[in-house]
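Entry:
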Amino acid sequence: MPDKIADNKYEGLNINSSMNVAKCIAIISVIMAHSRNTDYYFYSNVTERIGAIGVITFLIIAGYYFNVEKYGVKSFFKNKITSIVVPWVFTGTILFLIGHNFNFQDWMKWIVGHETYLYYLSMLMLCYLFLSFFNKKTYLVLFVLLNLASLLATSFGVFDYLFFKYFKVVEINNYLNVFNWIGFFSIGILLKNNLKNIMVFLKRNIIIITATYILSLIIGFYLEPAYAGYFSKLAIPLELLGVIFIFSLSTITWLNNKFVHNIAELTFAIYLTHFLTFPIRKFLIHTPIMEFINPFIFLGFNCALLLIGRSFSEKINLENWYCLLLGIRIDKVKKNIKKLNYNNSPSNG
């Protein structure tokens, strides 16, 4: 008798829980990208590769949960102003003022993500905007193909050549090209009806996927030792394989716990504030192996600061403002704990 997806071994797989685990792994990737040391040759190359898969994972997850049709365009974007734009601008401004004298033009460049980590939010909002009006399957496939073509053109210097030849622009910001990202968001939407089956497949083949990804990192170093970031020549296959690796890890049962779920609900706030934790770098051990451990330390310190701040804000009756300005959804953690307890109860497999 052929295997069934809903057999006893896999019926406990919960997509929302797995997405939370994936978010936790993705934020570690982001922290690794921004905290990595560039002096360790092979290890620096590997951390750069791993650091390039976090944002892509977040975009796929955002696409999967994209639900503009449920609320309507106006209500959807009204919600995003409070849940994304307000904390984005608030925390971005604080970080800008820490390192710069205020200049409106420089501040605007910083906020939109010109050579800063905030490019992700600009691209995310553009994905929301594009897909609010062009969300038929034909458009989604088109965006994936355009993303593929744009990444190839970026990786092999086609855009740099064209912009210099025709516009005398020496350097362009590839991070602010929405067509380098929109395809991943579209993939998330396309996966909505089949993700459970795909996740079960990833769970069954996690050892093979893990071994393949580790091997690809080693091969990637030997083929492309100088640069391993978002727009390297091997970016498309290795980043997609990295995302598959993250989603396969997200099916691990012991990672599906309250601790991980609570961190998952802080990932947006962590993305916005993680640079504030980097001053503790001088107290950390710096060796090639610690390059893979220090991001977890930054993550733990970041979470502690956010939770301490939230506890204090509760005591002075400013929790709503605190959560609004730092991008924390107030009731989400409690709801996820209740869902987790329900899904893991004996009556629910």
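Residues 1-9, 333-349 have pLDDT under 50 and may be disordered.
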